[in-house]
User: Fold these one by one.
Assistant:
Number 1:
Amino acid sequence: MESSNLTLVTEFILLGLSRQSEIQMYLFVLFLMIYLMILLGNLLIVLLIVVNTFLHTPMYFFLTNLSIIEVCYTSCVFPQMLVHFFAERKSISYFCCVIQVYSFLSFGIAECYILSVMAYDRYIAIRDPLRYSVTMNRGVCVRLVTGSWMGGLVISLVFTVVTFQLSFCQDNVINHFLCEMPALFRLSCTDTSRAEFITQILCIFTLLCPVIFITFSYTHIINIVLQIRSAQGRRKAFSTCSSHLLVVILFFASVMSLYMRPKSMSSPEKDKIISVFYVVFTPTLNPLIYSLRNKEVKIALRKLLGKTRDI
């Protein structure tokens, strides 16, 4: 700390999405409905995969983990945000802010790696379908998923330590709806250049490397698919990848635009809009994308609805 007269903060004040009191009720209803959609949509996908044995394949094993991550990821933010819509003082303690940053980043980074694993899975399935079940056996799948979760837990710890080694003095008002690293860097009363440099290096491993790997996988997938003579075969091959590719584009485009853009292009209001996109809209759309664009999931859903009617 540069001066002994500076007082370190013990809590932060989150300004939230809007400071207009007259629309807080409408925002509460809107985001409560969105949160329930995220929970129900992702948990329904998990249920469908668990109860239908024909979905017990590597692709759906990875999709189960992605859905669980989405539930945990959004649950780091939504409950607090919903409470703050009615709170006169939108405060969060320093300790809770640390926990939110760590847990939010853990699940976010794990999602980056799971999406990369899913791209690899699709590449193996299309490149060598006859040996797919041997190559992507249960042991390999478990190790890939475990590595994704552990990567999230470990790397997010480094992010969190780097962030909270900074000093936060008298100014404790965050123009955001959650404790997020760019907003905290902006609030710090000490030099953040070292922390920002370390963050950019870590972002290479958590964002840029997965994007490069996914791009590499899909480049090979497209080359393989274009060599298929049958138009129906090409459509079938592309259909198995289209849902995942759409999710990848939505998620990585928004996250990278926040964490890897130049500092000169950032602003609190822009950051909030980008955060809303990948915290709110992407997890909401994912279950819809995988259910509406996936024939096997739709079959499993019809079976489940049929059993429910019989009961």
Note: The chain has a mean pLDDT of 87.
Number 2:
Amino acid sequence: MDSYNPITALIIFFIGATLLYVLFRPVKGWFWILKKNFKSNKKIIIEDILKQLYHFENSGNKVDMKTLVQVLDFNNQSIVEAIKQMTVNDLIYSESDVLKLTEAGRNYALRIVRVHRLWERYLADKTGFHKTEWHDRAESMEHRLSHDEAEELAMHLGNPKFDPHGDPIPTKTGKIAQIKGVELPLLPVGSVGRITHIEDEPEIIYKQILAERIHIGSLLKVVENNATRIVFQSEGEEFVLAPIVAANLTVAPLEKEVAVEDNIARLSSLNEDETAKIIGISRESRGESRRRLLDLGFVKGSDVSIDLINPLGEPHAYLIKGTSIALRKDQAAKILIKKD
């Protein structure tokens, strides 16, 4: 018969106590962390469903369970369980297999959209993150920011009405400003207008627009419009887009005819033997980036020329107010000039 060993028993006791502490200690125990993550994941699924239903309804499209499963990056069982819970909580209802938001569900969805668009506005105005990162970072933050924190952010930003893509930011009471304009393919040849909105979904089309360096707030003139391509002039450059890509641009036609001057261009198009005057900075440049350009001397009326061409491509150095300033091409593309 084995004899009782108090030291062994004590070691086993301490090991067991340590495991219990690691598992169940307040707040930071594994059990509570896993439980919190489980609840957090359920919250994310529910909020993503609400947001998708809001976007579908807002665009006049109907959505059923099959469509929802296709657009969401969650397993089917998780979505089904979330739909059941949302129905019980009176956030959604089903009508002939079509999923619809209740008034409470729509209000909840608007709060999520509000946080997402406020955060994109913050990233655009207050940080140096590239626009390709705004959407994904806002996707994460929309599930984490509380209602009070969202209101503090809105006040900090001056209660903006639109996000950097031109999408309206819902107010805290759920009111939404209207986007002015029509899809670019609907404008006839000769039309002049201003880009008021750039749709950032689907991502593949948005990336094509970014690659073209098309800027919100820019004036444009349609020079060709047919079933295969849309051609327009803007800021001294000509752009050619497929209609499906051009449809992601909303343009507000100008009531009075405005001439899109041929000699207005982007600083990035300036040649080594040319001089020009600054006529402004594109609305695409915001916040700290805009202030930095102004502080460097790129203000309206200033003379500018190329001081040094980088043999490796970029940045080039521009002579402004007697100082040589190096700018990347994407920075120079946001400065508007009138060539001499």
Note: Confidence is low (pLDDT under 50) at residues 32-40.
Number 3:
Amino acid sequence: MVQSRCMEGQSNHTSVIMFILLGISNERDLQLILFPIFLGTYMVTLISNLTLITLIRTDSHLHTPMYFFLSVLSLVDVFYSTSISPRMLSDFFRDLKTISPIACATQYFFAAWMGQAECCLLAAMAYDRYVAIGNPLQYSTIMAPELCQMMAVGSLGIGLICGLAETIPSFSLYYCGPNIIQHFFCNVPEIVTLSCSSPFISQMTLFVVATLVGFGSLLIILLSYGYIAASILKISSLKGSLKAFNTCASHLAVVTLFYGTALAVYGHPSSGHSDKQDTILSVFYVIIIPMLNPLIYSLRNKEIKEAFKRGIKKAAL
């Protein structure tokens, strides 16, 4: 969908007024199967994350830095999933999946904001685990509530700035067609390739943000786990070593899923994967992981299970 537009000194060009998303699939039968699956996934994401947030906020036994960061991570996952899933679900019932540039920019901004914030939060949580294992006697002093709050606010602030830095130059480009986005959501790497003006600044911004925030956070996580491994090796008893490792297992699983999928989605040449492979990886990255995070932290965590039981008992009284 385009409209005529004259540019000074040039012939008439067309300006895109609507983008068209390809979606996950155009096959009607497959859409009927996928819709309830993704709707169920989104509902589980909301319920599990909001339940975890409520437990952590209301149960005094969970008022520790680790669970504070986990509650913020769950909040980020709720907004991250909500920035994409509702629109994707509604597109299952549309033959032409059009979206305005403003709506597209808004969707990408919130997804980028939450995605970058999650990178920073995972790094903060890795540092928290390092202090807990490497410096247990000074843990409560180092990880004071004020520092935890600053780290959480800083993560959200960095995500906000990066989201704006990626969105504004990308959607300030001139789009004159084609207007088909090879994805089920507004993903800037695919969108800027449609631009009729030079996307150099936008692409450089994406690269700088990915390097500083994405790989910077990953470096902090790797360094933290390097020190954690060194601290665990110094523990003489096997039981103590296993207990120390168990406190990191859930976070390590979440980090592996998040960064492993992110690198698979964004860390390959444009010709490295087919569009179908990219779609499948993106579905896992932006839809499945926000659902898995609270489950990974809850299923093996005795304190959360006990808090859940206490919450049920209070509700029954």
Note: DSSP finds eleven helices and five strands in the chain.
